[in-house]
Amino acid sequence: MIGAATLLTIVLMAGVTYLTRIGGYVVLRNRTLSARATAVMEAAPGCVLISVIAPAFVSRNPADLLALAITFVAATRLSMLPTVLIGVASAGLLRHFIR
């Protein structure tokens, strides 16, 4: 059962992720961006995702640490979507099997 605070946190993080993704394009849609500005706009959603998984860096749960390592390896070889899917799946499976 998910608590109200957890659900609210998930909804707010999803909203912030969506707003960072679409907000920049809406505000800057009629302007020509430099390569550096384009890189910043493309990195913003990844930064939000990093803030979500950052607490796992200080976790003492071996399942979380192992899932973090798997996700890190996936991030070095794959694009963002497969990395997120692998991270979520590995965290779920490892939390189920490792206690």
From TrEMBL:
Transmembrane feature ranges: 6-28, 40-59, 65-94
Keyword hit for Membrane: yes
Alphabetical UniProt keywords: Membrane, Transmembrane, Transmembrane helix
Recorded superkingdom: Bacteria
Name of the protein this chain belongs to: AzlD family protein
The organism's taxonomic lineage, starting at the top: Bacteria, Pseudomonadati, Pseudomonadota, Alphaproteobacteria, Hyphomicrobiales
